[in-house]
Records
---
Amino acid sequence: MNSFGRTDQSLKYLRLLSQQFPTQQSVFTEIINLQAILNLPKGTEHFMSDLHGEYEAFLHILNNCSGVVREHVDDIFGDTLSEDEKRELCTLIYYPHEKLELAHHMHLDSPSWYKTTLDRLLVVTRSLSSRYTRSKVRKAIPHDYAYIIDELLHTHPNENNYRVRYHERIIDSILETDAGEDFICSLSDLIKRLVIDHLHLVGDIFDRGGGASKIMDRLSSYHSFDIQWGNHDLLWMGAAAGQPACIVTVLRNNLRYGNYEILENDYGISLRELVAFAERTYRPVPEGVSGLAAMLTPLMKAVNVLLFKLEGQIIMRHACFDMHDRLLLERIDLEAGTVRLPDGRDYALATCDFPTLDPERPYELREDEQHIVDRLVAEFTTADHLHRHVNILYGHGSMYLAHNHNLLFHGCVPMNEDGTFSSMNCLGTWRSGRDYLDFCDEIARRAWRTHDQDALDWMWYLWIGMKSPASGRLVKTFERTYIDDPSCWQEPMDPYFELTRDEGACDAIMAEFGLIPGTGHIINGHTPVHTSEGEQPIRAHGRLLVIDGGFCSAYHPKTGIAGYTLISSSRGCRLKAHQAFESVEAVLARNADIVSETDRFDVAERRRRVSDTDTGVQIREQIADLRALLEAYRTGVLEERL
């Protein structure tokens, strides 16, 4: 029993608690309710990473709940439904509005079809709702049909005839009032809500694919999720806060992948002045060229030069970033058409078209370049839709999350070769391990809150820095832009990525973040798993899970799959490897679905309950507080309000 002392502070707390529970009976009732919740199966968590703007694939996996909806339909109906009937039912659950429209167009939506469909959906919903309290299910039910669905979920065929007829009459009334379509959509949404209790996104929602804005719009109405910031997310966060190098990098990334629409259509960011400047300042691509030179359009040339000038300014402002070997504009010899890299070798440049580069002041923007940068900063810092999305990233996001014995972060915890945590000079204070990630979280929030230059410059470093926990590699943007020789493209990685293939390093990281080694997993994204080459996502005997399976279509040939979902349920953990998503049209026309292979591991010896989770810890604390309130009532310290 948590026996509160007679301090003023504890009594003040108990008085506040007594406003919610004014009598001993109300305290008893709540304790019984909380004890019952502790014994329910834990909610199912889904983990995804590195979506990179692949909206349709993400939406489908969200709708089919990583294939778990089909698993439940198979378990519930077994051989009582044919394969075609089960596929039809699943597709209806995934895309109810679209499937109903198709059924109407094909004249399939007869009253008997509606009744059969509603009956099947109710069977699935009843089965899924049994794992939750009635109160939680009520909160998940769409508001318009809350009473009706609650009634229908709590009837069974073996009840007395009057009760069964009552519920049959409800179904008949739904059909008579032409509410069948709305009701089917509401049940479908409830099923998906009950399958996934909570969604974890382990970084990199943005860039490459063009659908990041649509993903963020979908998340804005999703019932329960969190985000661990990836380096691409931090880049957009820095851009929205007004960091010029982050802004130009966002432009460069999306121009390289042909994603004008996210900039201009989704976020209303105009590139007109930039395009006009590029066309009048840089030469077009010569005919017949190949390699990198073929990709250096006037617009890309302008963006690249702006970027390397702005990056150079940051590097010179922050010696603590230790990036002076990335000051490469000053190493260009335009007469020879070469650049001398830090290895001392001269490499041929893919272009010598650098009309705004002053060899005496290589990182200084010309007046017309500064004007372009100022206009872009104004565009990004006043883009309302973008700012709504960045507020979601901040409100639901963090650098890392310790949750239910697992440790989630996108990239790495910077380490030295000997397995110790690497130190970083953080505005005058050396930090490492968890302390360093806490600083990164704090500085990212400060950049959004205050927009001071130090914090904004750190947003750029978190995107690209060798010791950034979201990056963890030496990024060779300049070399990959201007030098055709791939031997200089190699990007060294932080020792973390090799060290964590062994249990010892993983256990040290778990302990650093206050978790018990061996009781959970480190869950990362960031580095695509090349399954086609035999690489495995489960490492260090299950201590580390790398769930970047390559949602981005550009990575499918390298990874051999099209994304992972990690599922943690009351029965243990399993990893779903998804094949490429065809299209929503194929799903509707042929009931096509994403094919997913399952790898089960960490199988629970007994079903994991709410009591085994972080929520269980909180509930036990609530119970202890309620027992203290009960003691206060019984001893007369507080009076009941009958």
---
Amino acid sequence: MDQRGGPVHHLFFGRDDAEHDYADGLLRQGFQQTLAYEAALAGRKSLVIGRKGSGKSAICAQLAHGQVYSGPTTQIAPDNAAGDVIRRFDLQGVTSDTAKSLIWRYLFAVQAARHLVRHSGEDHRGWFRIPPAARALRDFLHANGEDADARLTDLISRGAGRLQSAALSVKMFGVEASVQTGEAPAETRSEGARAMRQLDALETGVRSALTALECAEAGHPPLLVLVDQLELVWQADPDSHALVTGLLMAAKHAARMYGSAVRCVLFIRSDIYDTLNFSDKDKFRSDEMHIAWTPEALHDVALTRARISLGRQLSDAALWGEIFPATVCGVLTPDYLTERCLPRPRDAIQYLTRCRDVASARGHATIHEADVLTATQQFSLLKLDDLAREYNVGFPFLRQVFVLFEYGSFRMRRDTFNERFAAVRDSLHDNFDDYTELLNEQSVLEVLFAIGFLGVGRDDEVVYAGTTVLPMQPGDDELHVHPCFRPALHCEGTGPASGLPGPGPSPDALVPSYSHTSFLRSVAATDVGFIPDREVRLLDEVRYAADRLLRHLDRSGLSADLRVQVRRDLESGLERRSRSAARVHVRTFASLLTEMSGRLEAAGYGREPVTLRLADEARTLERALGGSSSGGGGSDSSG
């Protein structure tokens, strides 16, 4: 049948990413107002957390461009270049978290200053009568080259360079820029202290302008700063950890500094947020809003987008009965579809689009039950591959573990999983030898449950992550592969949960290369989300310390010969040691740094930041030997 005259030809459910979906108009016209969106719009929540594809960027796009927020907005989405600048930014005398919070604070302050300068000219009394505090902001932007919009990378690079060199011009706020001179008081001799002093002056200037303009009294809505797509710059290393932690600290600081005049809303992927481990994380609980989708909400997404693409007021019964079949395998079609995808809009859109594409390729005017079944098989293979890719940075072993569930029943007893895992444990430990302490049956099951691959039987029902507050428990003995992934793993059988292996490969056949299924393609191993073994962490601390010191060396005031000598000493001391010698290696490297610091001080470079940083890093390594788990924070010395 020629489908060009049928609904399949015009049916369209949208793009995979929010940016293109918004540009095409489908997201703009069919945006679903969720609780997370309403909380962010109203200012009740400032931290929107959700899995990949859950709609974070859609909320951000709607707030920025949807003409629903009555005030000014600015959107910050760092790319790889901007993210690299922030990751590499550090300051002697403060931790890496604190240093990166300062560059975020600078970015927020510049955005606020730009807004106030424009706002004072457009909505207040004209340039010749604006308050002195607002004129000071105009002068600051001009003096520092920030009065014109520029690429985010350029803005961050300029700010980073000026904060590191104390070259930020803040004299218009009554603060001299020359705090890096030898006559400066001791508390401002460290890079961190100097940067804080200048940044405090800038932020105080912004706050003074806000007070002088009396925007709150006039009922002017606050500037809304939206930060999104941090996953593009996340690399699961200490610098990335500090980048996000510093952002949280800066947003909290902005709320205190600017009050209700500036609001920051951060959009962070849940797998990134869950890895953050810093002492003040509990202070963000009331700001958190986790995105959750119900089957009913996903049905609304499907119906709304079908209506928009077809250009008519489509009824629920028409979509699920005329365009789609009413049932699939005896199950109502909308229920069949939502049961077989993870509860997030991107998965639903991709699944619906796959059904439409299969029907179109077959020349069908509407979507048949056979089309849905074919699309289900294709979608399952894609989603299993996507799940491994989504969590590859945190858990690169997933592809090897998925194979343990191939063939037979989708239900498996824990003891059967333990037997199958035992057959591949040695191979996993060989491939991911930095994490042998945690690559065990219970930890892997906890991961599989947390990412939505597995559910567990509790009280005569199956629960998945997101439908229960309890993580995988030691007593959860009945494991269920999520329906989304069963077709790809050929485990759609409904036999008893006895753990019978079925017709699949024996445990011995699971050990080698895992290449017997189409989805098991090789990937490069990266750092896993598990905490590495202690010896590995200690060795990594040495490497991170050396990296930070080399960055300081590049901008130091040492002579050329001394720079060459310091670099040579660091590189020779950085030689990788075995785990068994980890503690000795850390202690030896810390002693080397102390010695190098002493040599530079004796050579007349005692006030050089790199000299102070050598001593700081030596103390950090000594603390790591004492049992603390560093996040690559470097020094917490005040200089």
---
Amino acid sequence: MEFTKDFYEDEVRNGFYIPGIMKRCWAAAIEILLELDRICKKYDISYYIDYGTLIGAKRHGGFIPWDDDIDISMNREDFNRFAEVVEKELPPELSFNSLEKSRDYDNVIACLGFHDISLDDQRLRKYHEFPYMNAIDICINDSIAKNAEQENLRESKILVLSKLLKHVLEEDCSGKSFEKTMNLVESTLQVHFNRKEALKPQVYRLLNKFCKEFEGEKGRKDLYAWIPGAMQFKQYYYPQEDVFPLSTICFEGISFPAPKNVDKILRIEYGDYETPNISGGAHNYPYFHRYEKNFIDLLGGEDKWHFRYRFKKEDLIHEKKENIRDMVFSVLRTLGQEEEEMKSREEDYNYLQTVLADLQTTALTIGNTIEQHLGENTETVALLSSYCEILFQAYEKTQRGDSPKEELIALKEKRLECEKTLKKEWKKTMLILLDKAKNFSSIEGFYQKMLEREDWKVLLMPIPYCYRRGNGELMDEEFDLEDFPKDYTYVDYKTYAFDVMLPECIVMNSPYDSCNMVHSIDPFFYSSNMKQYTKNLLYIPWFVTKDVEWGAEEDGKAIVMMDYYACQPALAHADYSFVQSEVMRKAYIEKLTEFTGEEFRAEWEKKIIAAGSCLLGQEKELTRHVLDCLEI
């Protein structure tokens, strides 16, 4: 399956941040599902997408933004046929697991996928550069007993077994409570567990036996169920007429089988499924986090792993350099100091002649510097010429033995006029770095507001970026210049002399530097490098999310996702980062403090500014906050 390149990029859906590595996880899961779909079509086996995947298709047209896997369902009869043919049909990198196949398998849900971490080029290319293990879940629906008494008996047995499973899942398999439960289960269900073997597969095999109890002619034909649901005290009963004949539904742009009555099935499973609910907290989300250490080891150790930011307190240090404009204004202020000193020694003509000659040389140097940067015929250079004439007049007076008192007063007036005019002619420079054209709306309103300022020259600089392979290698360079609005002027990154220009402010909207597994701007433009070329490095995010309330259980997954955009290099290297709201400011501060340690809380409280976002129509507020920080 081919996806467009931007499918793999970090994205915000329904206010939830989805990192690019999750998008690759999704793409890999779809690829596995397509293999299953191919096999099922070949052998006329029925299956359909279900649970969170079905909700996603119905409500979002694809994955639920905070989901990280694919669920399908099969009736037991179809599952048995699938299990008979699947292994001879699978490509070598995929495997199928179920309780029927392996005594060591320990889940009532079967799965199909790859179950190892790999940097094999061929597998990475086929499965969209996703290196971690990935599998789709296959839920098996079973027949209902023909009479209620038999069904109630099965449910009661499953509920007894669930007491033991609870101990197993919580790894609480010792002590009096466990032994009491074990004895109860064995005596009630007339079974014996082998204490020398792993207990979890044994419990699931027994559960699976109960699920299949009414296969074939023993069960009803008009109703079936997801039997293990009884362990959660909710039996999922599915009327045959609401499932078959199957329909189709679009999932991430691809048609897959779905129940005949999607709405009915989802209401059986979830009730009000139409209202998004980020349930489950952050436990084990995303699932591939638990395999990161294995991946790092496969790469060759921490030194080869660049995709997690490792904070150092030195990153907070920003040694600021003066640019040529700063130096010119500094020299002009020095002229003022010399003027004041001459006033205090206006009768010391030898001293005055020496200083006046030096000031003449200095003023000429300033004029030449201004012409080099602003061109000829500026008003400031004309005023400096007048300043030099006054210096010459003062010098002539001292030679005649006359006091240049009036000229010294005139010098100050002319210099102050020069400074005022120069501020208009030689504006402070703000350079805005842009990588993806589609994210320009996050900064465009701010740019337009800054254009209204008389004291700032604002430049837009599109910069190159590239995608990464699954092993971290950079792919071919991308450059979106032609996709940016045509009514703006852009600066060529190839010819801009950063070390000479040293703009007063550089604005970034990519926080990752090298710490994004899917995407990278050109390394020259990493925040760690950019801060050496400016006095003010600012970060304005390219996105907004739903406000994340720190500590709220329903925001648990969103807080985990902050690892991918808050715990990033630009937040440390930038002098200020401007986030969308006060609620998000608190979340950033708490997340970064948790990440770096309590001793750095004050740094984050200073650096993180609640300023609004252009994406929320708050460019005026954002601009005001930025200017307030630049004036500090």
